[in-house]
C-alpha cells in the first residue's frame, strides 16, 4: 500500500521521529513522509513511533491508499525532497 | 475530489496560509489540511497561496484522490482536529 504520514510532536521528539520515519518512508516536507510500505512494516513503524511519542499531546496521522497510482501529487513552490538534505 | 494539503512556509507567512487554507479545507494538524474540493476551487486556492508564498523557499504539497473512499485515515496519539481550536 502507499501511505502519506505526518506527525506533530513536541520539539524534543522531532529528531527521533525523523530518524525513525526515514527508515521506512521518503521525507518530503517538514514532518511529512510518503512511500510504499507493507502492513507488517507499517505496524512496526506505528509501534516504534508510539514508544517515542507522548500519546497525550503528540499526533501522528497516516493516510493509506491502495496504490500510488490512486494519488496525484502536486507541488507549489520548492520541492523540498530533492533539494534539502535532512538530519 | 478529495485532497490532503500540507505547507512548509516561513514563520512570517504561516498565519496567512492557515487563514487561507481554512476557507477551503479542514485543518487536521500543524500545517496540514484535508477535504473535498472542486477543480475550480483548488485552482483558486493554489493561486492565492502562491501570492502569499515565497516560491523560492516555501513549499506546498497537494495529494489528490478521486474520492475520500480511496483513502483510509489512521491517527496515533492525539486527534488534533477536534481537540484544538486554532487561530
Structural class of chain A: alpha+beta
Distance between the termini of chain A: 26 Å
Record the strand order, biggest sheet of chain A. Answer: 2-3-1-4
Q: Summarize the amount of helix of chain A as a percent range.
A: 25-40%
Number of helices of chain A: 3
Name the poorly predicted regions of chain A.
83-87
Order of helices and strands of chain A: EHEEHEEH
**Strand fraction band of chain A?**
25-35%
What is the fold named in CATH at topology level of the domain at 2-61 in chain A? Alpha-Beta Plaits
Rg on CA atoms of chain A, Å: 13 Å
Which architecture of the domain at 2-61 in chain A does the CATH hierarchy give at level 2? 2-Layer Sandwich
Task: List the quaternary state of the chains.
Answer: homodimer
User: How many distinct beta strands of chain A?
Assistant: 5
Which chains make the largest contact? A-B, 38 and 37 residues
Can you tell me the CATH class of the domain at 2-61 in chain A? Alpha Beta
Shape of chain A: globular
Mean pLDDT metric of chain A: 91
Largest sheet of chain A: 4 strands, antiparallel
